[in-house]
# Entry
Amino acid sequence: MSYKVTEEGNISTVHLNGEIDMDVTEKAKEIIMPLIEAKKEVHLNLKDVQYMDSSGISVLIESHQKATELGTKVILKEISKSVLKVIMMAKLEQILNLD
Amino acid sequence: MSEGTISITEQKDFVVSSSSLKEVRSFSRKVFEKLDINQDLKDELVLAIAEAAQNIVKHAYKGQDTEDKMEIKISLDKGQLEIGFFDKGRPVDKENIRHRNIDDIKPGGLGTYFIQQIMDAVVFKEGEKPWINHLILTKNLNF
# Structure
């Protein structure tokens, strides 16, 4: 997995790239959580994520819940077909902020 | 679509580690490339295999470093897909294998749910020596 973070005002956009599994979830959290803790609105661009498993879904849930707790939000952008399928399998399409 | 005429048996060993999961997916994708099934189903089967392998790393070995290997065996005969997982970790307590309530939104506990959504049957057996655990996932591909 690789990533790029861009900032615009209070919005931080994290472009994730590659496959998100148990092996990279800690790294993903290290990137995303500090932005949420800084009360940024975090946009996760998932256009270039070709694979996500239950560990990746856990990162999305944890990020969403942390943001809600801190009064900000995480919005999932340009979700790839394969990631959307896993989100729907987990019945999270009404829970997470999908754009 | 029928896979009734194709017969496949492929197996491979992997070090029990989260860093092996990419290799597990790659092996699975290569096997499923040989089957005339749609890409969505191939992706689902790869996810089920990767989730089961992840469960071995997370639960049978509690995420501890090991040099042990797990074996994954993919067989197809008369349209019946069987995927076997063999490991030498802690014995699986079948009573504790359950996914969380899907409506209880919290991180974790989804892997087993995904496997059950994708596969027709999930069976845990005691492994024959030298294995400790033997998990069998099956799915009928005759449709």
Summary: The domain at 2-98 of chain A is CATH 3.30.750.24 (Transcription Regulator spoIIAA). DSSP finds three helices and five strands in chain A.
